Amino acid sequence: MDESGFKLGDRTMYSDAKYETSELETANQKWTPRVQHTSHTREFRGNLSTNEGVPFVPIRLLKTKVFKSFSSNFNMKIFQFVIAGLAALSLVSAGDPEQDDVIPPSDVVVLTSDTHDAFIAEHPLTLVEYFAPWCPHCKSLAPEYASAAAELKELDPPISIASVDCTTENVICDKLSIQGFPTLKLFRSGVADDYKGERTAKSIVTTIKKQLLPAVSDVSPESFENFIISEKVVIVGFFDEKSAAERKIFTEIANVQRDSFLFGAADGSKTFKGHKHTTPSIALFKKFDEGLAVLSEDLTSENIKDFISKTSMPIMDEVGPDNYEFYVKRGLPIGFFFYGSAEQREQVGKVIEPVAKEFVGKISFVYLDSAKFGAHAPNLALKEEWPAFGFQDGLRKWPLDQSKPITEEAVRALAKGVLDGSIASTLKSEPVPETQDEPVITVVGDSFDKIVLDTKKDVLLELYAPWCGHCKKLVPTWDTLAKTITSDKIVIAKMDGTTNDIPPSTKVDLQGFPTILLFKAGSSEFMTYQGDRSLASLSAFLKENAVHGSEVPEIDDSAEQDPDLLHEELDLEELEPEVERDEL
After folding, report:
1. Catalytic residue (choose from 127, 284, 415, 471)
2. Among the four 258, 342, 400, 581, which has the fewest Cβ within 10 Å?
């Protein structure tokens, strides 16, 4: 699978040139892992004492959000980013669906939508994997996850980890917005965070053990100087007996953000060389910008979190796999400055940085090397001509006019327009087709509302990429589905997600290709299809969920065997382009 992008929350950065599917990448492979899913896991029913060993389905590992690069002078790197930064990720083989490997009994607890929350509440620290039985990556990780469960059970006190089958427990998976398989989430005191380690038993165990250590280190006057320079960002709280409440809040925040920053607590009544402080207060030491930021008033949870978010990132920094996730987590629009040379970076950067300082805490500003990641420019509706600048907020983008020089005034005006809504975002769209002669209706950005949001019809929409192998495999099935359903109340449609933008108002969270969505008649809300991509499954999904589902005929998979369509698909496979440069 080739992925040239990464994603978190409602923010996406993906390459128009090469971004393979993530959430349903193997759904069209109609096989079931040859594993006895009723003999090697434990099902949680609310009391661990009653859980005798019963088996679990192949694990669903963390949905890999990646930053992938290709070039002759930049070795391919895949960085998994979740919560604390993109750590180097070792790839796990997808496995061979024809192999008869059997997963031995394990100590993984099987959860349902009914037992999930109770299990999380009962365990201050736990790891839960969300999987699909057909997912080969889940199958590959199963023995590693089971091995980790066995080792963690031997700790004192023991740690239990669990799994959820999202094909049967869709209630809890929808609640947690699980969109890719496998996904691993780490829960600490009920707060969910994405697992960011490697997909090995050793890494899982190491991560859990690290979570058991104190999130806040005790800092003495003797250790202070070395402690505050030990990492790029170090956060120290100064407390005394009167500020126990503030220290408790500080510790709670440190527990949640422990993988992002180094936290320490010091006795505020003592003297620390080279640093004057008040008590209580929080000092953020950093190896960039002014070097120190201090919060000394109103140490509420909200204020401390806001303080860390605003001061822990450089005013303007080079964005890459090691820090992009931090920008995403800030939840702010991002201003991308694409430069083509060191000279451009220095000269134009001086123009943009004053604006970046002005909008600290409101907009993030970053440098982007066009030689490595220039292919991200079209995602912001920018030409691949440098220098270039544009803002992105989720699926919305605001390109700066490339026919004019980048000036401080122009960047400031665009930034203000982004924040106050006075400047509309740009919607990328191919020309609207003059005719629709095929059974599958073609949708573009400018026709999305008219076709997809037609409240009189149910619309099943495929978002695809021309280079996506899984999308190509879906072509004959999608065409057959459209030909078979003759009702004018049901529309089978497709849209090229690389050349057309989805209107932000729909709140579609595009994470990979193909993505299949059902927009029901009478509503602008949608359902994401999570099943396999067989003709029978797709038609059954429509029949069950569409408002006009009763008009969907009974269909079996024998209708898919259209030799002409299959031949056309093979021709398309041969035309898949090669990637020869670094992309976001």
Report:
1. 471
2. 342
C-alpha atoms less than 13 angstroms from C-alpha of 108 in its C-beta half-sphere: 35
Amino acid at 216: V
Say which CATH architecture domain 109-211 belongs to: 3-Layer(aba) Sandwich (3.40)
Q: Which of 249, 468, 474, 495 is catalytic?
A: 468
How does pLDDT run across 200-214, given as a tens digit for each residue? 999 899 889 988 989
Instruction: In whole angstroms, give the CA distance from residue 572 to residue 367.
Output: 37
Residue 417: name the closest of 368, 360, 359 by CA.
Answer: 359
- What residues have CB less than 8 Å from 114, skipping those under 6 apart? none
The mean pLDDT of 521-545, rounded to a whole number, is: 92
pLDDT at 342: 97
Is 173 annotated as catalytic? no
166 is catalytic: no
| pLDDT tens profile 47-62 | 333 333 333 333 333 3
Q: What is the mean pLDDT of residues 242-257?
A: 95
Top mean pLDDT of 173-177, 214-218, 320-324, 557-561 is at 214-218
C-beta of residue 46 within 8 angstroms of C-beta of residue 367? no
Token duo for residue 98 = 């024809």
CATH 3.40.30.10 fits 214-312, yes or no: yes
pLDDT tens readout for residues 430-475: 999 999 999 999 999 999 999 999 999 999 999 999 999 899 999 9
Which residues have a Cβ under 8 Å from the Cβ of 107 and sit 6 or more positions away?
Answer: 42, 53, 146, 149, 150, 152, 153, 160
Residue pair 85/322 in contact by the 8 Å Cβ criterion: yes
Give me the catalytic one of 17, 127, 132, 135: 135
Q: What is the pLDDT of residue 65?
A: 32
Nearest to 265 by CA among 248, 287, 288: 248
Give the DSSP H/E element, type plus range, for residue 282.
strand 281-286
Residues of the chain above pLDDT 70, percent:
77
CATH architecture of the domain 441-558 equals 3-Layer(aba) Sandwich (3.40)
Determine the residue type at 387. Answer: P
Please report, for residues 26, 427, 429, 582, the alpha-carbon distance to residue 535 in angstroms, rounded to integers and kept in the order given.
Answer: 15, 32, 29, 37
Identify which has the larger pLDDT, 563 or 504.
Answer: 504
Taking CA atoms, 56 is separated from 107, 132, 163, 186, in Å, by: 9, 11, 8, 19
Q: What superfamily in CATH does domain 316-420 come from?
A: Glutaredoxin (3.40.30.10)
